[in-house]
Amino acid sequence: MQRLLLIDDDRTLTSLLGDQLRSVGYAIEVANDGGQGLQHVMAQQPDLIVLDVMMPGTDGWEVLERLGGRSSCPVIMLTAKDQEFDKLRAFHLGVDDYVTKPFSFAELTARIGAVLARAGRLGEPQELIVTGDLQIDLVKRRVARRGSPIDLTPTEFRLLEVLSRHHDVPVPSEALLEQVWGSDYAGEIEHVKHFIWSLRRKLEADPGDPQHLLTERGFGYRLV
Q: Per-residue pLDDT tens for 165-188?
């Protein structure tokens, strides 16, 4: 289970956002000031940090500067500012993504999943995935259900491969688009939906009641 650290002095926001992120399978730690957040990072090394800029005492900028090269953990910065200078400063300090308040929880959840995918923190690669009645051999590029081979197109297999490498972890639709189709297809979520349905018709006993390829509503998909 991926561990996220929320550093924000808005306790209402961290409570509601924490509930949202737990509901899609993340473990959540909360720090309500920058100093406490730094202690959490040094002690626990989370998989990703969601960091607010404007906090009393040690603000988000200082947290980033003090982290320096001491942590490889990806960071998503939250701020009410929308100035180009602030964005450039954030990326110069090593921020992986930048979300301007107000934002939707669905948007931030999708961005978290995309950053984790780019950072390679969604799971360790495996050569053979066995889940229920499915066998997925990522080396030989073969798929079988109950021992019977299943023919997949190259795109179908690539989509299944990405989901398999992040087995049992929700992967955002945007990350699937990037990894399967490339950046030219950014925003074309219908591609993902179409191929997920195609995979379900081949892999599921009942495509209308999938047991392997599950939808994480408003987020993406998960192979279980």
A: 777 778 888 888 888 887 777 778
Please state at what angle helix 11-23 crosses helix 105-119, rounded to 10 degrees: 60
What domains, with CATH codes, occur in the chain? 3-119 (3.40.50.2300), 128-223 (1.10.10.10)
Sequence-ordered alpha helix ranges (H) in the chain: 11-23, 34-44, 60-67, 84-92, 105-119, 154-165, 173-176, 189-203
Q: Which amino acid is at 109?
A: T
CB 80 within 8 A of CB 101: yes
Cα–Cα–Cα angle for 99, 124, 25, rounded to 5 degrees: 50
Q: Is the pTM of this model over 0.70?
A: no
Spatial separation of the C-alpha atoms in residues 121 and 125, rounded to whole Å: 10
How many Å apart are CA 86 and CA 141, to the nearest integer? 45
Tens of pLDDT, residue by residue over 64-76, are 888 875 677 889 9
